[in-house]
Amino acid sequence: MSHQSAIERYQTLTPGSQQLFEAARTIVSGGVSRGTLAFAPYPFYAAEAGGATVTDVDGNEYLDLVNNFTSLPHGHGHRPTSKAFNQELTASSAIGTAHPLEAEYARDLSVRYPSLERLHFTTTGSEAAAFALRVARANTGRDRVLKFEGGFHGCHNELYQDINVLPALAPGAAIPSRPASAGLEPTSTITAVYNDPAAVAEAFGLWGGEIAAVIVEPFLGNGSLVTARREFLEAIFEQAHRAGALVVFDEIQSLRAGYSGAAGEWGYRPDLMAIGKIMGGGFALAAFGGRADLFEVFHRGPDPVLQTGTFTAAPPVLAAGRAAMAALSPSVFEDVSGRAGRLRDGLRREARDRGVAVHVNGVGSMFNVAFTDEPVDSYRAHRAADAGMLDEVRLHMVNHGIVIMPRGTGCLSTPVTDDDVERVVEAFGLAISHVREG
Ligand SMILES: Cc1ncc(COP(=O)(O)O)c(C=O)c1O
What we know:
The chain has helices at 3-13, 15-24, 67-70, 79-89, 100-112, 125-140, 197-207, 230-242, 261-266, 315-326, 330-353, 379-384, 387-399, 418-437; strands spanning 46-50, 53-56, 61-64, 118-122, 144-148, 174-176, 190-192, 211-216, 246-250, 272-275, 286-290, 359-361, 366-370, 402-403, 409-411. By secondary structure, the chain is an alpha/beta fold. It folds into 2 domains: 3-76 and 329-437, Aspartate Aminotransferase, domain 1 (Alpha-Beta Complex); 80-326, Type I PLP-dependent aspartate aminotransferase-like (Major domain) (Aspartate Aminotransferase, domain 2), CATH 3.40.640. The protein has an 8-stranded mixed β-sheet, sandwiched between helices. A 4-stranded mixed β-sheet has the order 1-2-3-14. Strands 12-13-15 form a 3-stranded antiparallel β-sheet. α4 packs antiparallel against α10, α5 runs parallel beside α10 (315-326) and α13 packs across α14 (418-437).
């Protein structure tokens, strides 16, 4: 079965979605505001959702392994989360004065993620990453930020750099960042090769005295979940601290690595951290935090840093995030991560049995499939994987009622069962067979 016939099958199953998409395109350019949702030939339109399942407007049911791009720890309609949200909503959607829930939830997060001695809430992860850098600049009096190729930290100017840009950098390289889209303002950001201690040394060799902070994802959430090697993270801490720069972990996605996030699980204490996604329990909530002394810049000196935002730390959203995270105990985390581990093994087995080269990355509740016979441990290896094969396999899986992200990544929510895992593995095997027969 060719890719064309998978597309035709999808179109036959989803005529209502196609119609809605065509109509939407006449008012929302590209059909959807959020570009990451616009996969070919068009996204299906949701009618309802519950637990791990989404049903589209044509009545097709899907096992949802996208979970709003990793932000739903409990899938859809988690009772304790909705209840907490609704209880606060009866008072107000947002109140223009302080609310006790803010410090209560901040305290919970600080216990769970010990690097967060102080923290501030934001509405989105993009804001959290941007404010973490502002704190770093205000503390160091320096401008430049070092990021890594393929690292995604949100859509704002200084960090929307070198995400999908080609050609990939040569090993050991560090360069002034290349914008990932048109329309960005010029920045002083620097990009180095991910997972490459020599590239970290190169960046500090060239710009050491100018770098305020290094921002790094413990795994490349947008890049096949390439996971940071210990020697790479150690080089970052060592070089940054020697040069007087701060280390920022972007844990917006990697809170899924384990109960206390990647830093906590792997034994690191970054100076600053940005968190988001699951900590909002499915709602628009994120935060940045870190060493207590670094937060003095908010209330000291002639030019204190100002954080503001009309909907920042809205009480219903804080209540929802807090309830969702309270339900993610260490044993629940272990259960979901164990299931994800079995899923990763199953995907590898299906591909191997069919003689197809696949590399499955993932930690905690996450997984990623990349069709390649090389280990996917760098941005370069991620880009070298067979994207066409992934598109085809993914669409066949959608036609079988399983959704993962177009980039080959998926994650488990707490309602996913062992039977669901079996179903995914089986659909993956069938999808590979379809593609090979085509
Ligand atoms: C690692 C990482 N950082 C930052 C962001 C931006 O977060 P948001 O979409 O909430 O602005 C994302 C979102 O996907 C992310 O995965």
